[in-house]
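Recap quiz, item 2
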Amino acid sequence: MLTVDLKKRFEKKGETAFRLDVSFAVENGFTVLTGASGAGKTTVLRLIAGISTPDEGLVKIDSNVFFDSANKIDLPIQTRRVGFVFQDYALFPHFTAEENIAYGVKAGNQKTKIERAREMLALFRVEHIKNRIPREMSGGEQQRVALARALASEPLMVLLDEPLSAVDVETRLKLLDEIENAQARAAIPFIYVTHNEAEAERFGKQRIHIQNGKTID
Amino acid sequence: MIWDALQLSMLVVGVTTAIVGIIGLALAYLLAKNDFRGKELLDAVLTMPLVLPPTVTGYYLIVLLGRRGLVGGYLYDLTGWTLAFTWQGAVVAAVVVSLPLMIKAARASIESVDPNYEIASFTLGKGKFETFLRITLPLAKRGIFAGLVLSFARALGEFGATLMIAGNIPGKTQTMPLAIYEAVAAGEERQAQILALILTAVSIAAVYSTNKISRSRIYG
């Protein structure tokens, strides 16, 4: 069970402050987070991962508390074990596919890390790109490597920030299947951010909608 | 005279470049990645030697590190040694005047690395130091290298501050630029010519390679 309760005020000069006030609790499955652009979807993911800090609230998964303003708990990003798939993937441009994934592998020496990376590449059926750097990959390949990298670090959950916005429609359907399968295999919560209604419909089981910084039931 | 000056210059510039590389990189990272009170003031103070006349920089070095200087005085009382009129003094002068070039280039280069790469590294459980070594540094290496080469060239050409703190002692603190000055003053045109040509060639090579490095794109 992932419990999220976040409050944060964003001040901007000359504008009324944007207030984020989001709370939800989801089972260890697939959750879709929807909302118009600017509603605060990405911000919610960043707050869960610890990239930025809420003013107050609570973030915990099962018994692991990441953030709890009442008890002054605020784990740094590095120890939260949150896999993050960025909108532009943020694959390290100077590393090959397998080096990118191996970088995330926790234990072992360089050799076992590379072996683990190859297994992940095989799982996503992209072994053939193991020696390519991100610039030489297609959007779909980059997305697979980014998800494989996030999973290689053995996270407690995975956050995906509109990961298919740069992929063509045909590939998108295939990748949606793969992401769903990956969630089922890993059996950890995936939060999938999208503003695409068709994608949201497809994963309709657990759905959270944000409007203007607030959760709508 | 030429050989002595050349040897001494190589020693001074070699040590200077190593020091500038380490201190400059640390300061560039501090300025690029942290927000603290007086940050831009610190940057301004470190940049000063770039715009001040080198004699003024040298004057401050004497006030600070000379035999009767604020810090140098203690050092002299304690050890009987002073930085003044030593090759180490020439190194300090060269470090201070060339450091701003390294800091400017390295800071800009570190700041231009997409912070998402660093955040991605953090989410994968890596600490700040490992992230810097394996992600930021390789992605910023061209600017850092360019800064290092420019610092090297600036250190090689350093004259004014060196003269103030280290003097102009042949074989001891007389680097190439000082040797040129003395050769011209003594009417030894041949020596001046050779030294000037060497300095010019090295400087052109340095600036040319810097331009080449910063224009090439590696990761697209």
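Chain B has a mean pLDDT of 93.
The first helix of chain B runs from residue 2 to 33.
End of item.
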